[in-house]
UniProtKB/TrEMBL annotation, chain B:
GO terms for molecular function: ATP binding; ATP hydrolysis activity. It is found in: Cell membrane. SMART domains: AAA. Keywords: ATP-binding, Cell membrane, Membrane, Nucleotide-binding, Repeat, Sugar transport, Translocase, Transport. This is Sugar ABC transporter ATP-binding protein. PROSITE patterns: ABC_TRANSPORTER_1 (PS00211), ABC_TRANSPORTER_2 (PS50893). The lineage of its organism: Bacteria, Pseudomonadati, Pseudomonadota, Alphaproteobacteria, Rhodobacterales. It comes from Neptunicoccus cionae. Residues 9-244, 260-504 form the ABC transporter domain.
Length: 359, 518
């Protein structure tokens, strides 16, 4: 009796016990190369020379002082959401809700920063940061407790929370938070000057949110590599069973991870409102929470890598805007480039651990 | 090889490298019709790799596999199966919620088949189970079967697919002595029917009892292939080890005060395995207590109770007279309980952590490994290096990912991790399962040394030889209940086997779920 009736060419994954350095570094590089290849084909389909398109993107993102500052500003919220996702994913806590936590941070900033607190800047900004972080942490605490207490899948809860929270914000902007001077637009009042994040250098359009993002990245990196909490988070992410056996309080670690992750995502909302926009609208974030997932994955969940990945992603977005004006190629090219970069990188990660064999 | 005319399987010059490590180095041997070849070797000697190559799970760097004279295409798992090679794994691959018949026929027929088909299949299964002495009901749900019965289903599954070559990986690890005898009867019947068998085992007396020829692997190289009639246990052990292996000698015990006590402890069942049923047990200083029993009779619950992972549903625990009923793994470690877990891959270590990170796994929160929430990597690193040196962990260094170590070296790291604190109570759950003789002797001598300096050791094992060789007092666990105490040498293996099968207890063991071994 034959076990399998059908025969054909099939493929299978064989684990690689000990991947070489070449494999570990070469494959992500190949993933980026493949991304540019896909983008080149699309640029050609749009009737443009791919090299001039990439040149224009590069120039648009880093070609002038103004462009660089614009890219850094755009990278700021992505660093925060990227860190939020990276730290949660490291513990295998799948936080897809950075968008909701971002808006929670923004909400607290406009509630407390539009005149409710009348203090000087050196006192008001730390309080705003503290409460924004708390708000984001609480928003993610609910899915974390649902997971650890009742085993509810956090992918579902955090994802759905995004929609609930955005509708909640929308309700507030149409109601109690609506700016009476806003000529009917669903928009909050403006922050008082002392609640605004100052610019790093006078006259240059780069605010301290970027500095805060860099400091956060370094802090998270130190926590992950040097603290017992970071060790616990990595242990829980790699092997829950062994972690529990060794006496690591798995559920408590997951809750702490969630609080940290939610707080980081909320800082993105705080920094966008206090550093850039000055008020809260429903288009505050063009999906920074979701793009944070791409940033974290491109960075292979490394907190310092998140900064580099966020600059890369922000550069593509900013560069694509000016490229689009010059070369008449739609800006959607940026979205496609990011999507394919993510896919290629996920594939590259898999191929560092497995090789494909026939059979 | 010349004694048997018809060659059914030949491995020729198989070489497989993983980076620096050569798992198989030009291994060649053959198997004849009606022959049993035992594959013997230390853990990490390359037995599993060799079988994975035979089954196309890995592609060999060099060499060929041929079955019935035809060379198998490398890296194709179906080729070996189609050629009539079947394997019974150490961990069974059965679906608990399906019947024996459904498990056996799974994948051999279209999804929807007529009643006639099923009737024919059933008839064939009954016929096979009679011919090969594999007593099992085709309609029983696999989830309700004992481990021995499940193994019979696995063998039936292979026979049903008309295999001509049967490979058994450590088949006796989970069996009582009586069940092992039954298995050997089945294997002899299979040989009489013209099958050929590869028998992978660590137990020398079993190899001597069943095999015609033995192939010894050491560090990936084939050191010898000898006929059983030309060798003996001592010679085989020496071949495996590369040196004469001496089991540790056991000095008389000098038991002292009771360190830990379980009083009428009852726990809930763990999945299919029963929990403890009103168990009382005292762990005394300077004594090794052996807990014998067939797998899945409450050992897991016992280990979790002593290790702090589970709280009793009823009854209490005391440590030096103090009530510790409500403690956790963390408090167990803090109170000096050394825990050697049953599964070193899944619970004992974190595969992707390096040796340093694994060495501090239980104590990362205490000085000197951390202070105020910050880890001291330098001291942790030094601790791991000390363990590596003192416990002879063979590895490139403390930064090596533990996944790359063999089972024996992993176990040595775990031993070092828990024994370095000079614990007073040691819970050793299957501490030598899957280890080679060298590592086995090493682990045993460490446990004896701890006993001699006054530690209480609870040794849980499914290997009766290990219990009888090492334990000062023996308990048998069956269906979550504890037998009376037996002194060393008081009972023969056969007598203990009856207790392991659930006989001798005051009241008959309940047949709930049918866990008992028959």
């Amino acid at each position: 009796m034959n076990l399998c009736a059908k025969k054909g060419v099939t493929m299978r994954l064989e684990p690689i016990e000990n991947p070489t350095v070449l494999r570990k570094l070469g494959l992500p590089a190949a993933a980026l190369a493949a991304t540019f290849l896909v983008a080149s084909l699309l640029a050609m389909a749009a009737g443009a020379n791919p090299f001039s398109v990439f040149g224009l993107i590069l120039k648009g993102a880093f070609g002038s002082k103004f462009a660089v500052l614009e890219t850094l500003n755009r990278a700021t919220p992505l660093i925060f959401t990227g860190l939020a996702v990276a730290i949660a994913f490291r513990a295998k806590f799948w936080n897809i809700g950075a968008e909701a936590q971002l808006y929670a941070g923004a909400l607290v900033t406009v509630v407390l920063g539009t005149g409710f607190l009348q203090w000087p800047a050196f006192a008001i900004l730390p309080v705003l940061i503290l409460f924004a972080v708390l708000a984001g942490a609480i928003v993610l605490l609910v899915p974390a407790l649902l997971k650890t207490r009742f085993g509810v899948d956090e992918v579902v809860t955090t994802l759905l929370f995004n929609f609930i929270f955005l509708l909640f914000i929308s309700m507030l902007l149409e109601g109690p938070l609506k700016d009476p001077m806003g000529m009917g637009w669903p928009k909050s009042a403006r922050l008082i000057p002392d609640a605004r994040l100052p610019r790093i250098v006078d006259g240059l359009r780069l605010h301290w949110g970027f500095g805060l993002a860099l400091i956060s990245a370094v802090m998270i990196w130190i926590i992950q590599t040097r603290s017992t909490l970071g060790y616990e988070m990595r242990a829980v992410g790699l092997n829950k069973e062994a972690a529990a056996f060794a006496g690591i309080p798995v559920n408590r670690v997951l809750v702490k991870t969630a609080l940290l992750s939610g707080g980081l995502a909320a800082l993105a909302g705080f920094s966008e409102v206090a550093g850039l926009k000055g008020s809260l609208t429903l288009d505050l974030s063009p999906g920074f929470g979701y793009t944070g997932i791409i940033v974290a994955m491109l960075a292979l969940l490394n907190p310092l890598g998140v900064v580099v990945a966020a600059l890369f992603v922000a550069g593509i977005f900013v560069g694509a805007d000016s490229m689009s004006r010059a070369a008449d190629v739609p800006t959607y090219l940026a979205d496609i480039m990011l999507a394919s970069a993510l896919l290629m990188m996920v594939l590259a990660i898999m191929l560092t651990r497995f090789r494909v064999v026939r059979g | 090889m010349s004694t048997h005319p018809e060659e059914v399987l030949r491995l020729d010059g198989i070489t497989k490298r993983f980076g620096e490590l050569t798992a198989n180095d030009a291994v060649s041997f053959s198997l004849a019709k009606g022959e049993v070849v035992a594959l013997l070797g230390e853990n990490g000697a390359g037995k599993t790799t060799l079988m994975n190559i035979l089954f196309g799970q890995y592609t060999a760097d060099n060499g060929t596999v041929s079955v019935f004279g035809k060379t198998l295409p490398p890296g194709n798992p179906r080729a070996a199966l189609d050629a009539g090679v079947g394997m019974v794994h150490q961990h069974f691959t059965l679906a608990d919620n399906m019947t024996v018949q459904e498990n056996i026929t799974l994948g051999t027929r279209p999804l929807f088949s007529g009643r006639l088909d099923r009737k024919a299949a059933r008839q064939r299964i009954v016929e096979l189970s009679e011919r090969f002495h594999l007593a099992v009901s085709p309609d029983a749900k696999v989830g309700s079967l004992s481990v021995g019965e499940r193994q019979r289903v696995e063998i039936l599954k292979a026979l049903y697919r008309d295999v001509r070559i049967l490979i058994l990986d450590e088949p006796t690890a989970v069996l009582t002595p009586q069940e092992t005898d039954d298995l050997f009867a089945t294997l002899r019947q299979a040989i009489a029917n013209g099958l050929s068998i590869i028998f992978i085992s660590h137990k020398l007396h079993e190899v001597m009892a069943i095999a015609d020829r033995v192939v010894v692997l050491r560090h990936g190289k084939m050191v010898d292939g000898v006929a059983i009639k030309d060798t003996d246990k001592t010679a085989l052990a020496a071949l495996m080890m590369g040196a004469e292996a001496t089991p540790p000698s056991v000095a008389p015990a000098n038991p002292g005060a009771t360190l830990m006590e379980l009083r009428d402890v009852t726990t809930r069942d763990i999945g299919n395995a029963p929990g403890l049923k009103s168990v009382s047990l005292a762990l005394r200083s300077g004594q090794i207590i052996g807990l014998a029993g067939v797998s899945g009779n409450g050992q897991a619950a016992m280990a979790e109770i002593v290790g702090g992972q589970r709280k009793p549903a009823d009854g209490s625990l005391a440590l030096a007279g103090e009530d510790i009923t409500k403690w956790t793994p963390r408090t167990a470690v803090q109170n000096g309980i050394a825990r050697i877990p049953e599964d070193r891959h899944k619970t004992g270590t974190i595969a992707d952590f390096d040796l340093t990170e694994n060495a501090i796994l239980e104590r990362y929160n205490d000085a000197p490994f951390s202070r105020g929430g910050w880890l001291d990597w330098r001291k942790s690193h030094r601790f791991a290096s000390e363990i590596i040196e003192k416990y002879d962990v063979r590895c490139p260094g403390p930064d090596t990912t533990i996944r790359l170590l063999s089972g024996g070296n992993m176990q040595k790291l775990i031993l070092g991790r828990v024994l370095e604190a000079a614990p007073q109570i040691i819970l050793a759950n299957q501490p030598v399962r899957g280890l080679d003789i060298g590592a086995v002797n090493y682990v045993h001598s460490q446990l004896l040394e701890a006993r001699n300096r006054g530690a209480a050791v609870l040794l849980i094992s499914e290997d009766l030889d290990e219990i009888m060789g090492l334990a000062d007092v023996i308990y048998v666990i069956a269906e979550g209940r504890l037998s009376p105490t037996f002194a060393r040498g008081e009972k023969t293996p056969a007598e203990l086997g009856l207790w392991m099968a659930g006989q001798g207890f005051d009241e008959p063991v309940r047949e709930e779920g049918g866990h008992h071994a028959s």
